[in-house]
UniProtKB/TrEMBL annotation, chains A, B:
Names of required cofactors: FAD
Domain Acyl-CoA dehydrogenase/oxidase N-terminal: 38-154
Domain Acetyl-CoA dehydrogenase-like C-terminal, first and last residues per copy: 476-590
Transmembrane segments: none
Source organism of the structure: Hoeflea poritis
Residue ranges annotated for the Acyl-CoA dehydrogenase/oxidase C-terminal domain, each copy included: 286-455
Name of this chain's protein: Acyl-CoA dehydrogenase
The UniProt record lists the keyword Transmembrane helix: no
Keywords associated with the record: FAD, Flavoprotein, Oxidoreductase
Domain of life of the native organism: Bacteria
Length: 596, 596
């Protein structure tokens, strides 16, 4: 059973991602070390003791009958306890009952919820996205009606983007919104893949829906964002009539079986006096995509956290099995009978690979959250330069946090199945569930291919390429420190990190040049290998950053050993990735002919 | 829907794996080109038109009631048609009604069955294993009773190895066999993970069961192999009493839902006058493991073929979707509206990666089958040197064919889900099923970690290391030919192949030295990266071998382009794998402390 790795999480937050320095510099208000520890410990307890034991119940699915979805046994009560613990309101604005805590704490706790059950935790991930969009773009009236209950989690939120023909490309969506004349709109259309579009956790569900106004220009410049509640809300805040929207079906999916993925129909006349679901505009007309991006950026980071979370959960599960299961005699085994399979070098490689990737991706995701917090803090104190710097840092790390983490989530979950041998293929073991659950994360909130395009075409060119170069320079500093340390336990770590950074630099320069030359197709051909090169290198350097922290105990030795394992066993891939970026495009384009 | 790639399969068989040369040299009896084509075409038709349409039915599972398993709708009839087509008897000895065809044809057709449905095809994979064990080790009486019906497929076979505490390590199994005195034995025990242990395809099921005799020595030297039929067989060949064995339960698995994975109980007294399932010894007492290895070697190759098959099926499915689905505008897209996603460079990379890996692993597996056929042929004509050479070649390639192919099967299936975006996560699409099905292949018939141990500790040292060196020398010859060709379409292929071969040589020498020095733990630490290094390099060289064949048509251009893509985009990983072998052990061993 999952035990929240509170110590690892706290260490990475404070000493790798920069929470400690940010607290010390006063950038995070009156947040204290003690409060951080108290929050992490209590979240760890709740995740391990209350969420994890109900995770496997999620496999019972979410049956739909007459538009009503029943969530898995115990989950509605769990959700109630979870919001009563204040976990939904962590980052919400204090003006509406939120705790106003930094994003770093939100992602740290989010990792624990998602390790214990990705399917359960998804509900709040969507609600938090809705909170952000409403906080940032809705008018005061909407905020007054909806924000407090969304922040507390008493009501939940959804994101309605995708339609059958509009996935990655939202420009072609067809859902329409007709102005009623009183400031409200009537929404008509069908949305698919709506996570927690219908459920029994809460009394009301607040749908954020992208739709087109009658005279909207075509493409992405003609999309507006609407708030469409399941139940209309009376002036006194009580629930009124059922709005004209319904869950038409629930998908039969590979994983996250406890999370209802709904097809939602708006305005088919099932409820209300006249057809059309009543909705209210969020932000300006035709600026819906910009509003959506507010919530999508953080949602991308939160999906990245799911990758970290599933890697951690898979690692723990495999480790436990490898310590218990005996089979064969490992080389050098002195004990009685068969050795635990953890003594076999190949199993050690599996477990160390999982642990390295989990820790590296955690450090990336937490660093991204740190950048968001630093940007917010700089904006708050009116420091425009710092705000620009940190916003660019967050922008740069978001696709890495999303794509690298979710890719390694799948990898780690797959290795986890393998460590279990035949038992891994049996559903009751639970390792297979982690693999099934993990597989959605590289897809939703922008496929990892889309993230790579975003990284290369929008994030690298920030500040004319200077931001990414500065970032790589920071990583170089850490690597140099490993060299100066001259500790033999690091083995070849410094050299290996240097080589990887050189690969990253070469590939970055090549891409910036290709963009400048207008060789877009060539740049995009290498986008995915570049994204992995970036994630692997920065993740390994972050492991080194942690390994440099001197605590003088066994944990320090373990961090150094893991960092060295990662550098000497996993990082070598960077030269291949560099070549794929700088030399691979031509053959890729030529080989189009080899496809049907 | 899957269409058997008969042309690709025939080409690889004849021009890469060596079927053409073997026919021309008269090593394969009176087998002709025309017969090969006729068999492949008809198998292709059957796989595409009859098996594939019923594949998704397998998701309905195999319910068990009172010891009786019901297979998915239509499958029992499909099985009947399949054996009526003679597909089960392809390689069986003509003495008992088999067609005596070479293993190359068996694996080529097996690929097609497994692409269309892995779960359906598993039944015959096990039967063929039983046929081999009975052919090679059973006495004439048993052959007379069982062999013809196993070869035709009228009866099916199983392999009963695993027990709850004995998986990879069979030395600790507990099932026991008590001599009755008349040449038969009574078997008592429980076996798990028995594929098609019970079903409704056939009138009788012939279980091959590993068990211990009363005075057997401990460990693997005390295991004997028994033939235990579900129904006893009367002297006239008709079915007699039900034997005392029963399917106790069917596993709830991640994939291959149409294939019943059974827990079998022998001798609990449910059937017959006295407890104990009646069985007959195959081969000598306490030599059961040797008999089992006869069937396991070929079974490993056949599982490797499942990896190839699922990669091909996933590729085809993703290709079809990528051609149909439109989204966004790819760079350079001149058409109306959105472009098909296949025009996006990142999707091309996905598809080319899948296709490269499928073709490379097919070439490895077929080459392994070729070696088996050549060894059999050499033995048949009493050429001991050739027999030794080809047996060593088959031995060397078997773990690669098993492990590399099944690993890339999972990779390709996972990429296939990704290409489908959100639809890939929906079960009805079928891409997720391929991923779920693929995940068992790296586990069963010896986990891929076990294959790596086998490769390093038993296959590399063959003929004092000379065999593997000779093999690498052959690959070098092919690479040199690419260089001599001087065709600019090959791009940097020759150089990249040379680098990979140098990596393979370095790692091979390092491992041979480590074995010689008795540094077993260090050698095993690098076994899995070495296995992938071997598979990737040899697979890429085989692509080059095919690309060197001049047909003068578009297929030739496609083969060259794919070979180049593989060399320039995928092969770069070899330097990292070499380093993991030659430099990674120390850090791996040190990092044991970082695990719990």
């Amino acid at each position: 059973m999952y035990r929240a790795p509170v110590e690892d999480i706290a260490f990475t937050l404070k000493h790798v991602a920069g929470l400690q320095a940010a607290i010390d510099a006063g950038h995070l208000g009156d947040l204290t070390d003690d409060l951080v520890d108290a929050i992490l410990n209590e979240a760890g307890r709740f995740a391990s003791e209350e969420v994890a034991p109900l995770a496997q119940e999620g496999e019972k699915g979410t049956p739909l009958k007459d538009g009503v979805v029943t969530t898995p046994p115990g989950w509605a009560g769990l959700y109630r306890n979870w919001i009563d613990g204040g976990w939904n309101s962590l980052t919400g604005t204090p003006d509406y009952g939120g705790q106003g805590l930094p994003t770093m704490l939100s992602v740290a706790t989010s990792e624990m919820w998602n390790s214990s059950s990705m399917a359960f935790s998804l509900c709040s991930l969507l609600t938090m996205g809705a909170v952000e969009a409403v906080e940032a773009h809705a008018d005061e009236t909407l905020k007054q009606i909806y924000l407090e209950k969304l922040i507390s989690g008493e009501w939940t939120g959804t994101m309605n983007l995708t339609e059958p023909h509009a996935g990655s490309d939202l420009g072609v969506l067809k859902t329409r919104a007709e102005p009623v004349g009183d400031g409200s709109y009537r929404i008509f259309g069908q949305k698919i893949f709506i996570t927690y579009g219908e459920h029994d956790f809460a009394d009301n569900i607040i749908h954020l829906v992208l739709a087109r106004l009658p005279d909207a220009p075509p493409g992405t410049r003609g999309i507006s964002l609407f708030l469409v509640p399941k139940f209309l809300v009376n002036a006194d805040g009580s629930l009124g009539a059922r709005n004209d929207l319904i869950c038409h079906s629930v998908e039969h999916k590979l994983g996250i079986h406890g999370s209802p993925t709904c097809t939602m129909i708006y305005g088919d006349g099932k409820f209300g006096d006249e057809p059309g679901a009543l909705g209210w505009l969020i932000g300006e007309e035709n600026r819906g995509l910009a509003c959506m991006f507010t919530m999508m950026n953080n949602a991308r980071l939160n999906v990245g956290i799911q990758g970290v979370a599933v890697a951690e959960a898979a690692y723990q599960k495999a480790l436990e099995y490898a310590n218990e299961r005996t089979q064969g005699k490992a080389p050098g085994w002195q004990g009685e009978g068969m050795s635990p399979i953890i003594e076999h070098p190949d199993i050690q490689r599996d477990l160390l690979t999982m642990k390295s990737l989990a820790q590296a991706s955690r450090a990336i995701a937490f660093s991204c959250a740190h950048a968001i917090d630093m940007a917010d803090s700089a904006e708050g104190r009116g420091d425009a330069d710092a705000a620009k710097f940190w916003r660019e840092r967050a922008n740069l790390l978001t696709p890495i946090a999303k794509a690298f983490s979710t890719d390694i989530g799948v990898d780690a979950a797959s290795i986890g199945v393998q460590v279990h041998g035949g038992m891994g293929f049996i559903e009751e073991t639970g390792a297979a569930r982690l693999l099934r659950d993990s597989r959605i994360a590289p897809i939703y909130e922008g496929t990892n291919g889309i993230q790579a395009i975003d990284l290369v075409t929008r994030k690298l060119p920030q500040s004319g390429g200077e931001h990414v170069k500065g970032y790589i320079g920071e990583l170089r500093e850490i690597t140099a420190e490993v060299g100066r340390k001259n500790n033999p336990d690091f083995g070849m770590t410094a050299d290996k990190l240097d080589e990887a950074l050189a690969d990253l630099e070469t590939a970055t320069d090549w891409l910036l040049q290709a963009l400048q030359d207008g060789r877009i197709q060539e740049a995009l051909a290498g986008a995915t290998p570049y994204q992995r090169l970036f994630g692997l290198t920065s993740g390994a350097v972050y492991l080194a950053k942690g390994a440099l922290v001197e605590t003088g105990d066994a944990l320090e030795n373990g961090r150094i050993a893991l960092c060295r394992f990662c550098a000497e066993n996993l990082l070598g891939e960077t030269s291949a990735l560099r070549n794929a970026v700088t030399q691979g495009a031509q053959s890729l384009i030529q080989a189009r002919s080899a496809l049907g």
